[in-house]
Amino acid sequence: MALLLLRREATSQAPHPQPFYHDAMNPFPELPPSWKPHLETELQSDTMRSLGEFLERERAQYPVYPAHEDVFNALQFTPLEEVKVLILGQDPYHGKGQAHGLSFSVQPGVTPPPSLRNIFKELRSDVGFRIPNNGYLVPWAEQGVLLLNAVLTVREATPNSHAGKGWEGFTDRVIAAVSEKSEPVVFVLWGAYARKKKKLIDLKRHFVVESAHPSPLSADKFFGTRPFSAVNKALGESGRGEVEWQLPDV
């Protein structure tokens, strides 16, 4: 069953360090302006320097997804000040043409993978969602739904190939920055991996909706948890606008 937890209080912001990777050979794209003050210190860390070197080697030898310019798309489409929901994934889809930097989302024209199809099935039973002809979730991101993966890149056809290389510390800092917001945010944690991140969230201030993962391996425990109506209920209780989950055909 989906579980809701509650909220309260504000905290401080991170300092504004000097930017680091900015040349044409930068292994990371430019950070969007709203996120820079909160993430540049982490981006300058030795761990991220090592990750950058690893990514350069990987991209020289293998297809890596998403494309370089799409790696920070979750942050690009959803500025920090607009975040009201965070849906956490694990790592990007590893098939050609699928990943574009948003957790669970695929590019237009790409068949939705099994986990996303299960998300759509639950949406249909939960909120009367009409399943669209695409799995492009940008309309959610543009409403303040941060679609974040814990690991932001992957080698083609090799799931979890970039896990443990340094992305986790960076995305933990993203989660912490969202948790520092004074306005209540709804964190959606599906599966054991995502639920471990609950320790990064201020549970006195924010809401958590958690359940099994929509993967076919655990979908029987995911179906019926009604996370999407739970998200909108929490947003309503905190005076924030609900998410319009319906996606248009493209």
TrEMBL record:
Molecular function (GO) terms for this protein are: uracil DNA N-glycosylase activity
HAMAP family noted in UniProt: UDG
The UniProt family comment states: Belongs to the uracil-DNA glycosylase (UDG) superfamily. UNG family.
Q: What does this protein do?
A: Excises uracil residues from the DNA which can arise as a result of misincorporation of dUMP residues by DNA polymerase or due to deamination of cytosine.
Q: Which GO terms describe its cellular component?
A: cytoplasm
Give start and end of each Uracil-DNA glycosylase-like domain: 76-235
Top EC category: hydrolase
Active-site residues are 91 (proton acceptor)
Q: What superkingdom does the record give?
A: Bacteria
Q: Which PROSITE patterns has this protein been placed in?
A: U_DNA_GLYCOSYLASE
NCBIfam families, per the entry: PRK05254.1-1, PRK05254.1-2, PRK05254.1-4, PRK05254.1-5, ung
**Organism per entry:** Deinococcus peraridilitoris (strain DSM 19664 / LMG 22246 / CIP 109416 / KR-200)
Please give the SMART domains that the UniProt record associates with this protein: UDG, UreE_C
The GO annotation for biological process reads:
base-excision repair, AP site formation via deaminated base removal
Q: What is the reaction catalyzed?
A: Hydrolyzes single-stranded DNA or mismatched double-stranded DNA and polynucleotides, releasing free uracil
Name the Enzyme Commission number(s) assigned to this protein: 3.2.2.27
Please report the name of this protein according to its UniProt entry: Uracil-DNA glycosylase
* This protein's encoding gene: ung
